[in-house]
Design a protein that fits this description.
Number of domains: 2
Shape: globular
Strand content: under 5%
Structural class: mainly alpha
Oligomer: single chain
Radius of gyration: 18 Å
């Protein structure tokens, strides 16, 4: 008998484990939000529709006007796409003009503005997403890494990321694969 596993169930388990491994204090709402975000972005069309123009222009549009609802939709789209791209595709920023810090700044700011302008029942979740943005990016990065570690090329990419960042969760992933990360210097031998 085959069982169908919906994406949200799959991601819920992965997000929960990543949060626990990294010792991130996240509310159940934030955990659900991340799981739902990942399941929504499984549809590549949703991601491409959320990043139709440069983020700075989209952010400017959110400030220029429209009604509260229109601003909230734009800010949430900015926060969601920034969080997803920063966490799930951190290697895409290598050798680019716009780096991951830009996405983190835009996403965190979008969620903060959304929290400040939202109703009381949605404000806390967006405040948490803003305040813990970097930690949640690391949670999504772990989910991404654990989802894609299938070839030696993926493992080499993970090791290269460790060399650049020294990330504790990347260190742990390498150790689970039986690799003890060691930084090597290239000084000439005398």
């Amino acid at each position: 008998m085959l069982m169908e596993i919906r994406p949200i169930e799959h991601f819920k388990e992965m997000v929960s484990k990543a949060i626990a491994r990294q010792g991130v204090r996240a509310s159940r709402e934030a955990e659900f939000y991340l799981s739902n975000l990942l399941s929504e972005f499984v549809d590549c069309e949703k991601l491409s529709n959320s990043i139709e123009e440069p983020m700075a222009l989209t952010f400017l549009k959110s400030l220029e006007g429209g009604g509260f609802f229109e601003q909230a939709v734009i800010l949430r789209r900015l926060g969601d796409s920034s969080l997803f791209v920063s966490g799930f595709f951190p290697d895409s920023f290598t050798r680019k003009l716009i780096d991951i810090d830009y996405y983190i700044g835009v996403g965190s700011t979008a969620y903060r503005r959304l929290a400040e302008n939202s109703e009381e029942n949605t404000s806390p979740i967006f405040g948490e997403l803003s305040y813990k943005f970097v930690k949640l990016v690391d949670v999504l990065a772990e989910v991404s890494e654990r989802s894609r570690l299938t070839s030696s090329k993926d493992i080499l990419r993970l090791y290269e990321r460790w060399l650049r960042t020294g990330s504790p969760h990347t260190t742990e992933l390498l150790r689970e694969l039986g690799i003890e990360p060691v930084s090597v210097t290239t000084e000439p031998v005398h």
